[in-house]
Amino acid sequence: MATAGATVRGCLPHVPCVHAGETGYEEPVANIMVEEMKPLADKITYDGLGSVIAVQGSTGPRIMLDAHMDELGGMIRRITPDGFMTMQMLGGWLDQALVDQCWTIVGSKGPVKAVTGIRDIHLDAENETPKVYPRDSVFLDVGAKNEAEVRAMGIEPGDPVVPDAPFTILNGTQNYLAKAWDDRIACAALIEVMRRFQRTSHPNQVFYAATVQEEIGLRGGETANHQAGYRNSNRSRGRQGCTGSTAGRSSRSTRWRSGVFLL
Questions:
Q1: Measured distance CA(116)–CA(29) in Å, rounded
Q2: What are phi and psi of 254, to 5 degrees?
Q3: Hey, how many other C-beta atoms are within 10 angstroms of the C-beta on 18?
Q4: Would the pTM count as exceeding 0.85?
Q5: Are residues 114 and 151 in the same domain?
Q6: Which domain holds residue 104?
Q7: Neighbouring C-alpha atoms within 13 Å toward the C-beta of 177
Q8: How much is the pLDDT for 83?
């Protein structure tokens, strides 16, 4: 039996944490998932929103394993005359996580580095030191002097913004640093399960759904659910990562009935 650590390390080559793929802009991650799934699947289909559904097996009870590809991010709302930008946040952000961070804006001319700064303590009023800056007061800075310079970089309102946090192994340990663990680690687990089930005999049809737009309301999960042939199935959603409940499993048998397992 492989240890949990070994399983995670085996999944790491498939964790697309470095790629931008915020809600509604998951295509770079979807391309990776298709590349990894194609040799392992009997067929691959897509729903109308952009989710990827790989299938193993053609008969028996239907089981869907679901991991979402999108990540928390933002969208450019406004470019100010002096070259700063405001963001519309997408997903469940904490305001205190937004300041003093590095970001990547995915513009029409390619990625643009940005930062959300904060005033130095020497310039801060005494009563401002402990406060949390609300998201409406946070601005992106790309080093531009005016709006024209921002637009010359290929940035327009509506462009996606994601954290700039490259994948790092922390000092030779089994601890890892990156953005988008929710839910890219489960995308990696999905591929690992496909590898193992490809070599395992079982009586089921297994649908592996890499879904979109989870962070703003489980949208891809709903459409992929229909694509797999479910209509009113009971679903249980894990908090994040590789957690979740085993919907549809009988307590009296090891055989799976039809159901959906969200990673």
A1: 25
A2: -90, 0
A3: 13
A4: no
A5: yes
A6: 73-166
A7: 10
A8: 97
Whether residues 222 and 190 fall in one domain:
yes
Measured distance CA(144)–CA(148) in Å, rounded: 8
Distance CA(244)–CA(239), nearest Å, equals: 7
b (16+ CB within 10 A) / e for 122-138: eeeeeeeeeeebebeeb
- Mark residue 229 as left, alpha or beta (left: phi above 0; alpha: psi -120 to 50; beta: remaining): left
Residues 29, 80 share a domain? no
- Look-up: residue for tokens 């890499």? 210
Enumerate residues 6+ apart whose C-beta is below 8 A from 90: 22, 23, 24, 72, 73, 74, 75, 215, 216
β-bridge pairing 62-68 and 205-211: parallel
Question: Is 239 or 5 the better-scoring residue by pLDDT?
Answer: 5
Which residues are known to be catalytic? 214
User: How long is the chain?
Assistant: 263
Nearest alpha-carbon partner for 40 in 212, 207, 227, 181? 207
Find where tokens 């029409």 sit: 108
Per the structure block, which two tokens stand in for 145?
């002097």
The CATH number given to whatever domain includes residue 215 is: 3.40.630.10
Q: What torsion do the CA atoms of 112, 140, 163, 52 make, to the nearest 10 degrees?
A: -70
* 53, 69 Cβ separation under 8 angstroms: no
Percentage of residues of the chain with pLDDT beyond 90: 36
Whether residues 199 and 258 share a domain: the answer is: yes
Please provide residue 161's backbone torsions phi and psi, each rounded to the nearest 5 degrees. -130, 130
State the angle between helix axes of 4-11 and 181-198 in degrees (0 to 180), rounded to the nearest 10.
100
